């Protein structure tokens, strides 16, 4: 990743950072789309709501970036997918000062790793956390979410630079595919997924997901 020297970035810094962002975005987006299409096959009622939303608001026209703000339920589905299956499952930070937690002090220079996978499934912050429920993220419910309990793109000055672009791409991809195909899956529960993590969260096995063209 890039480093600052006197507040100036070198060409090499910029190139390295762009290459990192490009490779990270491709890897994580691919795995997330696999998860989401499988979830749509597992939850046909959710798939139908997305289909109805796209047909009602966009029709048969191409889904354009200007259209995605209308796809409220589609965004809620994506957000809930990222809650249960965060493709970047951990965040790492190096502290630039001591942090006093009351019962313990984490010293300056320590590396802190936060498990988003466990945070997003914590009973302390989420009602029925193992349940897949996109309604959590509808506008009338989102205010109930505890601040900083949902961090799929991190937060603050070091949050994901590609967040807005990723959400546009995901909504266009999901909406376009659901409008054109009925998706099915033999999986009955997310608990069936044997998960592993390297750069991103993925399964140890192929996911069962089938696409049938709509009439």
Automatic annotation (TrEMBL):
Keyword GTP-binding belongs to the record: no
An example Gene Ontology molecular-function term: oxidoreductase activity, acting on paired donors, with incorporation or reduction of molecular oxygen
The protein's required cofactors: heme
GO cellular component, one term: endoplasmic reticulum membrane
Keywords assigned: Endoplasmic reticulum, Heme, Iron, Membrane, Metal-binding, Microsome, Monooxygenase, Oxidoreductase
Membrane topology: Peripheral membrane protein
PROSITE patterns linked: CYTOCHROME_P450
Stored InterPro entries: Cyt_P450 (IPR001128), Cyt_P450_CS (IPR017972), Cyt_P450_E_grp-I (IPR002401), Cyt_P450_sf (IPR036396), Cytochrome_P450_Monoox (IPR050196)
Cell compartments where the protein resides: Endoplasmic reticulum membrane; Microsome membrane
Chain coiled-coil ranges: none
Binding site for heme: 160
Function comment: May be involved in the metabolism of insect hormones and in the breakdown of synthetic insecticides.
Family: Belongs to the cytochrome P450 family.
Protein name (database record): Cytochrome P450
Organism per entry: Dendroctonus ponderosae
């Amino acid at each position: 990743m890039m480093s600052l020297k006197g507040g100036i970035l070198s060409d090499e810094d910029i190139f390295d950072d762009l290459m990192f962002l490009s490779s990270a975005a491709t890897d994580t987006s691919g795995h997330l789309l696999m998860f989401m299409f499988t979830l749509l096959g597992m939850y046909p009622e959710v798939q139908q709501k997305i289909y109805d939303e796209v047909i009602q608001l966009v029709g048969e026209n191409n889904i354009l970036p200007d259209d995605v703000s209308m796809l409220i339920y589609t965004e809620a589905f994506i957000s809930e997918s990222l809650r249960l299956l965060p493709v970047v499952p951990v965040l790492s930070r190096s502290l630039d000062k001591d942090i006093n937690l009351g019962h313990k002090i984490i010293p300056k220079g320590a590396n802190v790793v936060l498990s988003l996978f466990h945070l997003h499934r914590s009973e302390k912050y989420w009602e029925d956390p193992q349940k897949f429920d996109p309604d959590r993220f509808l506008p009338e419910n989102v205010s109930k979410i505890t601040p900083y309990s949902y961090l799929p793109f991190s937060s603050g000055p070091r949050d994901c630079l590609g967040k807005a672009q990723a959400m546009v791409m995901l909504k266009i991809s999901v909406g376009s595919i659901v409008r054109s195909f009925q998706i099915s899956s033999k999986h009955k529960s997310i608990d069936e997924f044997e998960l592993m993590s390297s750069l991103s969260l993925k399964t140890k096995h192929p996911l069962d997901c089938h696409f049938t063209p709509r009439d």
